[in-house]
Specification:
Blueprint lengths: L4 E4 L11 H20 L5 H7 L3 H6 L5 H4 L9 H22 L1 H26 L10 H14 L4 E4 L2 E4 H16 L6 H58 L5
Helix pairs in contact: 1-5, 5-6, 5-7, 6-7, 6-9, 7-8, 7-9, 8-9
Length: about 250
């Protein structure tokens, strides 16, 4: 994942503690990576092959668990892959979890990861490479970066040596993923996972905001109606009481 960066936010309070959802995702990914590294080129390595996302296995053998397990597997021969993924998870995911809460953050993480996996399956079949193995949390990470850019668009990302706002940073990543996914080769499938994560992240944010807006609007409308009805009943009770004591009140 080619995104060496750090960021600072404008007007957003950052705490140094790692929230629980991000913490356990970091621990589980690193632990599985170490196990994979220690068992590489041994008989036990075959177990991790069952965790990778293989489109043909998902479609023909119903190995649907791979849409989740592939997110926790990283190549034991490429330290940079898991390093950049976990760095992005910590940097961007921590603020999202603090804003949303652990439950919603984890739902979003796996939604983007599974959505990216579905895009990988479709892309592999279109490329004619349904037996290609895909591993890594990149799809979910790209979804997290999309959500971060939508929530904190003016946060400053230090991309390589240049400061850039989060919204433009994600636009650049999306353009790179889209152009890379157009390559008619198996190597383009991982780029489709990146693009899929961005798309599912964007769709979730827009859909969720509309649902919440409509839901809050409906609740507010019902609340005002309830207040009006209660005030009306109180006024009617008041008139009846006055009517029983005052002959001039009809």
């Amino acid at each position: 994942m080619p995104y060496p960066y750090r960021y600072r936010t404008a007007g957003f309070s950052y705490s140094g503690s790692i929230p629980p959802g991000v913490k356990w995702l970091l621990i589980s990914n690193i632990a599985i990576f170490l196990l994979y590294f220690l068992t590489a080129r041994t008989a036990a390595e075959g177990i991790f092959s069952l965790l990778a996302l293989v489109p043909r296995a998902v479609v023909t053998e119903l190995a649907v668990w791979q849409l989740v397990t592939y997110l926790f597997v990283h190549s034991p021969f490429h330290f940079g892959h898991i390093l950049l993924n976990m760095l992005a998870l910590w940097m961007f995911g921590s603020d999202l979890e603090r804003t949303w809460g652990t439950k919603r953050f984890l739902q979003f993480y796996f939604l983007c990861g599974i959505g990216a996996g579905l895009c990988v399956i479709l892309g592999n079949y279109l490329y004619g490479t349904p037996d290609t193995r895909t591993i890594g949390a990149s799809g979910a990470i790209y979804g997290i970066m999309m959500a971060f850019a939508l929530l904190f668009p003016d946060a400053t990302i230090i991309f390589i040596l240049f400061p850039i706002r989060a919204r433009y940073f994600v636009m650049i990543l999306g353009a790179m993923a889209f152009l890379s996914s157009l390559r008619m080769s198996g190597s383009g499938v991982s780029d489709i996972a990146h693009l899929g994560g961005l798309i599912f992240g964007f769709a979730y944010m827009k859909w969720d905001s509309r649902v919440r807006f409509n839901l809050l609007g409906s609740i507010e409308h019902r609340y005002h109606r309830w207040k009006m009805e209660r005030a009306k009943r109180k006024f009617q009770v008041y008139l009846r009481k006055r009517g029983s004591d005052d002959p001039w009140v009809q």
